[in-house]
Amino acid sequence: MILKTRLFGKSYEFKDIKEVLAKSNEEKSGDILAGIAARDTAERVAAKVVLSEMTLEDLRNNPVVPYENDDVTRAIQDGVDPNAFSMIKSMTVGAFREFLLKSSEDEIENIHDGLTSEMIAGVTKLMSNMDLVYTAKKIHKLATCNTTIGERGTLSSRLQPNHPTDGLAGIMASTMEGISYGIGDAVIGLNPVVDTISSISAVLHSFKDFMVKWDIPTQNCVLAHVTSQMAALQKGVPMDLMFQSLAGSQKSNKAFGITVKLMDEAYEVMREKKSSRGPNFMYFETGQGSELSSEGHHGADQLTMEARCYGLAKRYHPFLVNTVVGFIGPEYLYDGRQMIRAGLEDHFMGKLTGLPMGVDVCYTNHMKADQNDVENLALLLAACDCTYFMGIPGGDDVMLMYQTTSYHDIASLRDITGKKPIQEFNQRMEELGILEDGKLTKKAGDPSIFTA
Amino acid sequence: MNEMIKDISVVDYYERVTIDNPRDTESCIRLKKTTNARICLGRAGDRCKTETLLKFRADHGVAMDAVWSEVDETIVDQLGFFKVQTLVEDKEQYIKRPDLGRVFSQETLDGIKGNCIESPDVQIIATDGLSACAINANLADIYPILIDGLTAKGYTIGTPIFVKYGRVATMDQISEAIQAKVTILLVGERPGLATDESMSSYMAYESSTLKPESQRTVISNIHRKGVPPVEAGAQLVNLVEVLIREKKSGVELKI
């Protein structure tokens, strides 16, 4: 493995793979904050050149956090299929980029169990934005909970009816408005203010009652800490999907209050007690920068750490995984340009890992970004068959205090790309007179449909 | 000539339903009263109406401008604040480098030691944080209440310090430099949509760089429509008494 190159007469030498990975990353304020970014554009390109000549085996053998010290590394490495790995291990990262661009969906699916997160992060750093869109569009991962997500021609949405005090009436008002726009085929999922068993139970019951009363084929979820959800399950609360935020290292997961062992236990409890039918019943959220924020990045760049979140997520055969791309703040992703790049990277990496990948396309008020940036990224992601997006009243989350895609945006994205919700959900929306041929009817967008 | 287009920032949209021909308008109003989420908006095709769009842009605009605004230094000058700056050089660096916004140069620390009252019972600090507008809106109201209340209770008060481009942790370095018992830091919060004036107060007993963040007792949401600054000032005076009596703060303090 050679860690040295020349560019326009100037020599560049890197001390290890971790440095090459960090310096070949597109510019992110988080890598600059961590002090690991390329000094200038030429050094960034030199790092990409060196990376392009490494083999996938080099990347497998040099995880950014050592196997002995980290349960995420172990989960990823132990999950590699040796046969799939042997098919690709001698490919350079540069050749792997071309393989992905040339190959069919089936050919990519044949090798994706041979990949580790460092390989996926590596090839992502060599891809341009359109490369990321072009390749991600080939990959469709189906997953089944009560319904099946990820079919070609579908564009799904999480209905996110957050409320500043978890008021049930307000949560259900936002839910009614969302369903009246055809939102919620991925999940009706609340970020709770209060992480108590009684509050989680009340919200899950309300969602379930609404789904039963109006015969809405979807899944319910409350995005509380996994231990609170385990406790709620023990009380027999109807829970279709279990949620947890994931990070890409053992140390950062500790900051989230989880370990791989705990997640293994949670998965088993959920498998036994869940109210949903299918084999996929976990929901994970991630986002570039969380490892640096909890001082668990081990000197690695935020893109590589993010790829490792997907490697860990794969262990649990999730129904939903999404990055919350612009939530963490401008010290990690400074502006709309960095947010758009990160959103495309994360979606691509999730798909290549073999996940039914969605994106929370979002920003906070201290970022140099606005709703036009959200709309740009959402359109790009819709073009590459992103599995699902968030749907929030007016794009304004009144609990988490950030902005994301609105109910209107989901309807518009479906219209622009000719896509529909998940089949059973779509059919029910047609019966209720909300959608016709996948488009909103005159009656749509009126929550009082559900107050009758 | 004096006619003016209505101010969309003051329209009360808690009850405003803009759906064309809803099935049941009364129900829509009832739903709307249960949440401040942007529901019952109606639509133009699949997109939102012009009023909805402009209201959103106005609410985001005021929040975004607050982040990039500067504190009106005539306010801190009039109140007699000693002015210092962190290692941050400009607003953009402030946003990108939170680490630099937490520390001072040795020269600045020496300046604080040389110019400010040593070992006061209470040290007051104000800093722009993520909304200078919050300081501009609240400081002149809360500061006299603090001074009057603390003086009446017989506490010695340090030279007030204004930190330009500061993060919360600057209070630890200042407290260590001048050996204050209780340190109060007033800071502009990250603005939400349509709220640019919200300020937080962090306070700690013997605030220290060696202690975890959990050393701090917090009052947030200080602004006209939240906890009014005059009321927050009175609460802070009472908290100072508790902190000095208990000799601790933050999670260690069970209030």
UniProtKB/TrEMBL annotation, chain A:
Annotated adenosylcob(III)alamin binding sites: 192, 244, 293, 399
Localization terms from the record: Bacterial microcompartment
Transmembrane segments: none
Pfam short name (any one): EutB
Documented EC number(s): 4.3.1.7
CC cofactor note: Binds between the large and small subunits.
One GO term (biological process): amino acid metabolic process
Catalytic reaction(s) noted: ethanolamine = acetaldehyde + NH4(+)
Family statement drawn from the similarity comment of this UniProt entry: Belongs to the EutB family.
Known partners and oligomeric status: The basic unit is a heterodimer which dimerizes to form tetramers. The heterotetramers trimerize; 6 large subunits form a core ring with 6 small subunits projecting outwards.
Record's function text: Catalyzes the deamination of various vicinal amino-alcohols to oxo compounds. Allows this organism to utilize ethanolamine as the sole source of nitrogen and carbon in the presence of vitamin B12.
Protein name stated in the entry: Ethanolamine ammonia-lyase large subunit
Organism: Pelosinus fermentans JBW45
Taxonomic lineage from the root: Bacteria, Bacillati, Bacillota, Negativicutes, Selenomonadales
UniProtKB/TrEMBL annotation, chain B:
Key words, A-Z: Bacterial microcompartment, Cobalamin, Cobalt, Lyase
Pathway annotation from the record: Amine and polyamine degradation; ethanolamine degradation
Binding-site residues for adenosylcob(III)alamin, renumbered to this chain: 168, 189
Main location, first listed in the record: other
InterPro entries found in the cross-reference section: EutC, EutC_C, EutC_N
GO annotations of cellular component type: ethanolamine ammonia-lyase complex; ethanolamine degradation polyhedral organelle
GO biological process: amino acid metabolic process; ethanolamine catabolic process
UniProt-listed Enzyme Commission number(s): 4.3.1.7
UniProt cofactor(s): adenosylcob(III)alamin
Catalytic activity field: ethanolamine = acetaldehyde + NH4(+)
Cofactor binding, per record: Binds between the large and small subunits.
Pfam families membership: EutC (PF05985)
An example Gene Ontology molecular-function term: ethanolamine ammonia-lyase activity
Compartments, record wording: Bacterial microcompartment
Subunit structure of this chain's protein: The basic unit is a heterodimer which dimerizes to form tetramers. The heterotetramers trimerize; 6 large subunits form a core ring with 6 small subunits projecting outwards.
Family: Belongs to the EutC family.
UniProt-listed NCBIfam families: PRK05465.1
PANTHER family (alphabetical): ETHANOLAMINE AMMONIA-LYASE LIGHT CHAIN (PTHR39330), ETHANOLAMINE AMMONIA-LYASE SMALL SUBUNIT (PTHR39330:SF1)
Function: Catalyzes the deamination of various vicinal amino-alcohols to oxo compounds. Allows this organism to utilize ethanolamine as the sole source of nitrogen and carbon in the presence of external vitamin B12.
Name under which the protein is recorded: Ethanolamine ammonia-lyase small subunit
Organism: Pelosinus fermentans JBW45
Gene responsible for this protein: eutC
